[in-house]
Anhydro-N-acetylmuramic acid kinase (Epilithonimonas hispanica), 352 residues
Amino acid sequence: MEKQTFFAIGLMSGTSLDGLDICYSKFIKNDSIWTFEILKCKTLPYSTDWENRLKNAINLSSEKLLELNSEYGFYLGEKTKEFISNNKITELNLISSHGHTIFHQPKNKFTLQIGDGRAIKIKTNKTTIYDFRSQDVLLGGNGAPLVPIGDEILFSEYDACLNLGGFSNISLKRNEKRIAFDICPVNIILNNLANKLGKKYDKNGDFARNGTIDFHLLDQLNQLNFYQEKAPKSLGIEWINENVYPLIQDQKPEDLLATFTEHAAIQIAKVFNDYDIKNVLITGGGTYNSFLIEKIKAKTKTEINIPEKEIIEYKEALIFAFMGVLRLFNLNNVLSSATGSSVDHSSGLIAN
């Protein structure tokens, strides 16, 4: 079989609201082997207005949420069109958009990532694939994590891949199957606490490093029921609102940062140790939190690999671009062993 080459843009907006990640990549299929190259990438920080609108969308009426879904779709389309123009991109097979998660309740059979892909298609005139999670939830899965298909095919040299974003999630091979699950909240809490100290995030974990751990609170966090549940499992903002924020109201932000950083390190290292992971690739914005990484290293013998900046920051957007390529050819892009759905499947709506 001759070599096939595809060019795709992946769009990713995470729960920590760091901004919109745009990643333009080339994928080459040679027989059954896939390789990739990141060609151009950029993170566009949200304006204060967009950040607030996305953060508060969970409280909107259905009519206002539908309006925001369209408006955010056109925003994504406009930003992608500018990215294509600024980088003089001429070879492009598709745009693949994760959207921005507003609701995630797989047990109730729904999840919602806003940003209508048809609006992206209208703005860019490019085939756009979107809404990757809903089908999996309808098939009985968690609708997350989805990136394990990319870990399995593009990053198979590692025992496991850990993403430190709004939530930490991991994928690893067990009994010839790729399993994956959310571990605990990370940046969604740490950034919120750093905001109270006038910063967007806790740079290098410096606030946490100078705070004091509240061991009573730490114990309460570690006892939350989610940590006793078996994988596959996933987290959403609703879970945090119900279980975490009620516990962390009154203490000093520095002490809460110290405590929650310790909590995240304990939960992540526990997974490494429980699954006897030899080596792990760590990506996502939390990788830059050197204090958190130090804490994790101190609690495990797992070899920690931190890649180049482009992979740290754009691995998820890269994999969503790859998922779009797979979807275009109706190839499986969601693994039931990772999400808990009834079957592996090819997910995503296509606007063309």
User: Anything to note?
Assistant: The mean pLDDT is 96. Residues 84 and 90 are 8 Å apart (CA to CA). The radius of gyration is 19 Å. The chain is about 40% helix and 25% strand.
